[in-house]
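User: Hi! Is it possible to get a structure for several chains at once, not just one? Here's what I have:
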Amino acid sequence: MPGSNYDRDLTVKEGFVLSKFLVKWEMILVYILLALNLVLILFKTDLYFQAGTVQSIINAGLDVSPMVLGMVFILLLGDIDCSVAAQMIFGGMVTGLLMDKGVPAIIAVICGIIACMCCGAFNGACVAYLKMPAVITTISTAMLFRGIVEIVLGENSLKNFPAWYNKIGWYNIADIIPLSALLFIIMGVIFCFVLHKTTFGRRAYIVGNNPTCATYSGISVTKVKMQIFILMGFMAGIGSIFFIGRMGGGVSSSMGTGYEMTAIACAVLGGVSTNGGKGKMYGPIIATFIMAFLTYTLGLLGVDPNTKKIFTGVILILTILISTVNKQMIKDIKLKLIYHSNKNIEAINYRTIDFVKEKKAEIVEIKKSGAADADKKIAAINAEIEAAKKECAEKSAAWWAEQKADAQKAKERFSK
Amino acid sequence: MKNLLKSRNTGLIVVLILLLIVAGIVTPTMFGVQSLISMLQNNSVYALLAVGEMCVILTGGIDISIASQLAFVGIVCTSLSCSNPTVPGIVFVLLGLVLGALCGGLNGFLVGKLKMVPMICTLGTMYIFRGLAFVVSGGEWWFAVAYSDTYRNWAIARVLGLPAIIWIAIIVMIIAGFFQSYTTAGRRIYAIGTSRESAAVAGVNEGTVTLYAYIICGALTGLAGMLYTANYAIGYYGMAEGFEMTAIAICVLGGVSITGGKGRMDGVAIGVLIMAVVTYFISMIPGMSVWQKALQGAIIIVAVAINYFTERSAAKQALKERGALI
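Assistant: Yes, the chains can be modeled jointly so their relative placement is included. Here is the combined structure:
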């Protein structure tokens, strides 16, 4: 029937499945967050329920938050940006210098953000137009930007920043809701919308998944990359406001080293794949809070800040390992360890397992129906299962022996 | 002659000579024999790191944990040698090699066998090793008085007029160059860096080759860690921060392609010399030390861009020679 393809119903009919929802990565992150809170409540009950503790944990941990949102986009492209911390300090320096010159606060802040966007554009131009690898480009631009700050500031630090910077860092609305958390969540909602519901966000996914495919679909890969790197610069500029606010209004060239790693760690912990094209915006938002609580919990439990680095590293590696373990990998490991890398043995084992499953389902059905000769039928099926298992074992053993003999022969031949 | 003109190394040597001339005009004191030797002595650690990093970059990976590895191994060697000053230094050289190989093995296992992304994996281990360095040292600092002579002699003893550390760096570079160019194992590193798929089809076990590339990198880093502490006679957990960038910069400068499979030891050797002259030159001019970071960053960017353009034009040239229509 011509045109039947167009009549087909193409809507996804998955619906809401509770069991699947509960083991989603985002939900696991929520559990981790709750578990961390539980640990804090159990070990530091008084402190936890004191006014202001939770707020200060959140305030202290959220200085990287704007950069996490931008980093998600960068990672979705399959790129990485190691220069965000340097960009942040660079933007802060521009704002601080302009404030020192007596420029109105709002203009100084906007100039700082624009400076960050220029840094982002420089990265973007190198990565998108010159097609240089993002890792090495951003590592070296990080040195470049921080080096410029070092040249300009030397050993000095800038102290002159708008008063509302501090408020963003530490103010709590009605003493309950931290202002930084509120702003972060508002930004998060905007970013969720942009990533999941707009053409721009979907383009980031397709460019990350398959740039060639994106080109053939009429998407300018270079343009998308450029836009996203500039967006990252913008978020680094916003990040400088959060950061300086939390640091109590001061910038020097050595501040904020390692923040790019925290931002990347948050995004990766949130389930964004570093190969590009995979990940959602909700995960990293929760992961940012996890990082905040984790740092504080470790600090409270008496772990020294340098030892904390070990935890950060282990967590980073473990989360990525967990996300790389999938069905195919388990199958490969099974093939190697149990089935002696022999595809025939693997195939017959899988076939037997399927066969046994089928027969067992039959038994259950027969039991349900309650027919007169149920016992007899079940016995027959059981015998069948046994036979199949026996055959499988015999054949596997035979093939394994054959393979060993072959290997032995090959060894002998090559040793001559 | 034509090949010589086209070769990238010729360009690098010209740059090196120009740099030396400029440096000689601006700071004539630089050309004393002693100052040149001390320049080489201080950059031998970078040479070792760059050789190790080169092995990893050739596979198409990157290892940004080497500075932390260096600090960790250096701290372990230092603390053991300071508590047992009678043990001969060779023990610690071997210990450094083995410990470094273990650290590299961890990276190699995660990247080669468990297929993690090299950048993220070594980012994680960078934190881990730096943390371990702190745990082992307990926040302690070691200064020159704590080091035994037999330990320090591995770096500073004069052999044929040059400090031992320079000889070690030269020997390692020669062996590594031979290994990479003339042995099966070395060629396999290039093979998987050029194309994983074709290497796998040709019967190269990609995971294993990646693993030993990282182990080589780790072992050389461990050696560098021991020699670094012996050379400067100082040990603390935060040492050598940012060295990984210098090592990568040297590799890129020497013509090692960051995407893997391209680059030779002679280029890296010239890269080490150029980096040495630049950093030494900057440190000789008063007030210029703040420029170091920015200049290094700029040098890497320019070097990567030049690498990229030469590769692209070479590919185009090859296409033209084959008579393709472009």
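The mean pLDDT of chain B is 86. The first helix of chain B runs from residue 2 to 6.

User: Great, thank you!
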